[in-house]
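agent: user wants the structure for UNC-50-like protein from Astrephomene gubernaculifera. delegating to structure tool.
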Amino acid sequence: MQLPTSYHPSNGRRSQPRSYVAAYLRRFLKPKQWDLEYTFWLMLQLCISPKTAYRHTAYHKQTKNQWARDDPAFIVVCCVLLAIASLAYCVVFGDSAWHAVLTVLSVVLVDFLLLGVAIATTCWVITNRFLRKRNLHHHQVEQHVEWLYAFDVHCNSYFPLFLLLYVLQFLLSPALLWRSFLSSALSNALYMIAFGVYHYMNFLGYSALPYLERTEVFLWPIGLMLLVLPFSVLSGFNPSIRALSFYFG
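agent: tool returned. relaying tokens verbatim.
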């Protein structure tokens, strides 16, 4: 699969050199070049001070002239953590080794990577087509959102969601899986917070780019979820039961 890089709405061309993307992909095979210390520091900042994490992104732009990370370590660590969490669920709720393999592959490849590619591409198109500042001063250079940066934003936003919906949900599963009003309300609140944090982190990621405007559109899904939340709770819908039923029947 060939991934887009950056986009010019005027001519549809890619401006980011393909050699950069090729070098980025090659680094997946060179673990010695991964900066794991920075990766774990970034994960910590995304939990306690996400604005600090994105301020560091601006420093990255100043030093390396690109917004996207040039290190795939964050993606690799996320995939490993997702695989471990999925295996923990399989040990408790699964029924066979083959089912566990399929579940882990589905969570890592589909839920995180393929869905992330779709979300990043959608945000990449929206930001470049509709959210870039048009009335620039004569000394300002027109800039475009890099596709790899859009995918970085997805990965950054997914990590807190992972902690809430994979780790915390697993720990609270005895309470969340009871068929009661309280369990349903608690599960809905957990999913609301998790996806609310995801969209808020998306907002922070794109608002960190000085050439974008109206980035508050990335907060709109939170408003929609707040409208739906009371109906979901009153109807007795339990997203934890529904999610685990999808994977484990």
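agent: one observation worth passing along. The chain has a mean pLDDT of 89.
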